[in-house]
Amino acid sequence: MGVLNVTPDSFFDGGQSFAIADALQNAQHIINQGADIIDVGGESTRPNAMSVASEEELKRVIPVVKALAQATNTPISIDTSKPKVMIQAVKAGASIINDVYALRADGALEVVSDLEVDICLMHMQGVPKNMQVNPVYDDVIEDIKRFFANRIESCITQGINENRLILDPGFGFGKTLTHNIEILQRFNEFKSFGLRLLAGLSRKSMIGEILNKTLDKRLIGSVIGAIIAINHGADIVRVHDVAQTRDAITMWSRIYG
Ligand code: PT1
User: Is the pTM of the predicted complex or chain greater than 0.90?
Assistant: First the structure.
């Protein structure tokens, strides 16, 4: 899964049509590098990020999803927690909803039960504004598994077929480095649900902390992290460096796949 950010920095001078052309070009690059899924996001969920209003997020992502759906057959995932954005994005051609709030927003479960798309349920402790302020768990794996069990049950109650669900323990979302490492070490324990697993650790601060390196120097750490996740049962990896990750996966598959 290649990351396509549609945030304001891609909205300079040229205005809307320039921003769409720019996003399409970036998406084409991601596809050419070998991505199987394009993840379109209009709201940052990094630590300390500010939330974005529905109207603004719709303005950012819907034209891009529409244009992308017309230009390519590569499945489009929409990285959003807002029911309004989910509906419009699926109408525009998205086939996966990637929700870092795991459908806990008001109305999200109801909206998704009417849509025939896959859904990624991610675990997060707290909210992006404060999630890195002293995260605490009894047992990080057991706590996340309990969260997954509850969310799966809510989905089933709402009439969502379990096979549509993808689980993601949410690296960096309300977790210390020690928590993130334990999640990666014990990643295959989430296999117990019998659902697909997604791992997103590309360029995150857990890699920065281990290597003591800034964002632009986390490529090798990110690729290694993706491969460890895959080796421990991840079915999908969400990454920025598609070409390099693709090569690593091709190597891994030839040996273990
Ligand atoms: C993720 C993810 C995501 N991550 C899914 N969607 C982000 N399903 C956005 C840091 O510690 O892991 N899974 N959508 C990006 N969020 C972060 C969080 C970025 C933490 C950076 C950090 O540096």
Answer: yes
